[in-house]
Amino acid sequence: MLKSALFCIALLFALGAQAEPLQSPIDPQSNQRYLALIKKNNPTEVEMLFRRASMLLEEGTDLSAYDPIVFVLHGDEAHAFRQRNQSMYPELLNLAKKLESQGVIDIRICETWMRLNNVERSELPDFIDTVPLGPAEERRLKTRGYLYF
Questions:
Q1: Could you tell me the pLDDT band of residue 10, with boundaries at 50, 70 and 90?
Q2: Is the confidence at residue 119, as pLDDT, over 90?
Q3: What is the tens place of the pLDDT at every residue in 89-111?
């Protein structure tokens, strides 16, 4: 089961039309952890990645044994999660909440980006975490063995 679930995760993320390929080959017997590589910094890109993760749930893959896929947001894509913009992105937010609650993803927004964009913590949904500096969080995760997808 572990091998097939990891293979499914690898296949979904490696074959995506707009997704970045993994930086190292996947060992189906390892328990790799993943960090989303967001290049376009827009909500559409993030939603596409959420949908691909959601496909695993729809296929009945048991993801409870795996670490969530971490999304560190520190660009314009994070605006979609602000309370005042949530009506523009209902599908993105519903999917994010569902995937977060099921432990598939872990969304973290950069507090430095928040300060620069006058975003208060109270403007974000409760299921979203914050980190002091997004790029530093990505570096920290990479040193802990996370791979970009």
A1: very low
A2: yes
A3: 999 999 999 999 988 999 999 99
| 17: Cβ contacts below 8 Å, ≥ 6 apart | none
Q: Which of 78, 61, 67, 72 is nearest to 116 (CA)?
A: 78
Whole-angstrom distance, CA of residue 89 vs CA of residue 47:
9
Radius of gyration of the chain (CA): 15
Q: Report whether 26 contacts 149 (CB < 8 A).
A: no
Q: State the Cα–Cα distance between residues 130 and 73, nearest whole angstrom.
A: 9
